């Protein structure tokens, strides 16, 4: 798995960021401190630097990382992608691309699997839409997605998404805890949470 880094020089401020596999990052680790990781704080930046260092220390042919972690630690770093089943790929793409604004990851192999699908970027992670039969019942599910299996997306503004759902006629519920979060279901009944991260 390639670790992607996002690098933005502190000047000029209007320069766009680039998402690159770590093998293509031009910054070396001592100079990487001059870079700020988009939307992340100091702790997250340090986590990403550690991930990049661990990736760079991999044995070239074994695929194993050189680590000082205990023998029990398997080295889980983050969620790479979430697989979501859909009945109709085009209908799901309309929801995830046009309503939510996710972009397709063209680098992923859409045509190498025995079913139709699409990979969509969610920050540095992905959603994998898979056009396959859904074994889950569509009826009898909780009205509030927070009481069902769900995937949670971090967003900047719940109010804007609520307005978009209202305009599109999408049913939703708000977080029962009072925090800024909204729950809905995609066209196939998959529960989704959108939590506002300040």
Automatic annotation (TrEMBL):
<dbReference type="InterPro" id="IPR029068">
    <property type="entry name" value="Glyas_Bleomycin-R_OHBP_Dase"/>
</dbReference>
<feature type="domain" description="VOC">
    <location>
        <begin position="78"/>
        <end position="197"/>
    </location>
</feature>
<dbReference type="InterPro" id="IPR050383">
    <property type="entry name" value="GlyoxalaseI/FosfomycinResist"/>
</dbReference>
<dbReference type="InterPro" id="IPR037523">
    <property type="entry name" value="VOC_core"/>
</dbReference>
<protein>
    <recommendedName>
        <fullName>VOC domain-containing protein</fullName>
    </recommendedName>
</protein>
<dbReference type="Pfam" id="PF00903">
    <property type="entry name" value="Glyoxalase"/>
</dbReference>
<dbReference type="InterPro" id="IPR004360">
    <property type="entry name" value="Glyas_Fos-R_dOase_dom"/>
</dbReference>
